[in-house]
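ingest -> validate -> predict -> emit
validate: passed (alphabet ok, no gaps, 242 aa)
predict: started
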Amino acid sequence: MYRSRNSVQRRPACAWAPLYDQVTQPLERAVLAERRARLLNDLSGVIIDVGAGTGANLAHFRRAKRVIATEPDPRMRRQLAAKLPSAPVPAELLDAPAESLPHADASVDAVVFTCVLCTVADVDRALAEAKRVLKPAGQLVVLEHVRGTGRLARWQDRITPIWARLMGGCHPNRDIAAAIGNAGFTFEHAEHFDPFPRLVPVRPMLQATARPPAATSGAAGQHPKPARKGSQPAPAQTRRRR
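emit:
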């Protein structure tokens, strides 16, 4: 059963939500739109797009039976609502946080997180909700920035308090890849890539798909492991690109 939305702490509102599309447009054109398309074009069935923001994913759902976009930020939600009529598949919009999805257990075919797990109030709870609502053969789809290593990770730890205040609750230092594995998911495909300059703390990024425990019996939640550059994607491995 899902938790009452009134009992869930919501992420901070994004103060610059009205400018979000304008600010992110160069990155979308250069990098993210193509990656969204690769992840989302072939998804079928009922899909939840969690923390859908201003609706950057909508245009990339091509085969879905129905898309349910959830977004708790009212300013983001207003922009997303304006894009619903042009979505290529049936889509609806709900005011719901990632930690409390108003859907029955094992009721959806895919749960999508794109550029949102950095901002949720409770990552573990959000992933538990994704696992709860996914069908046994369902799929977790992720496009997120993740914690770096070494000097970059230390820089992320230092800057996160002020960055989170300025950027709508975004936490550059969250180890999202590890959280996905700890939630019991097993990566089918994972690729790290780094589209930003060195001083930008929200890097690298992770493009991945994973399966819930019921679909990967005998395979405990696996964290993505580095693969040699140029190797082909394989289960529970990553390709890193610079």
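The beta strands are 44-50, 63-70, 91-94, 108-114, 134-145, 186-193, 205-211, 225-226, 237-241.
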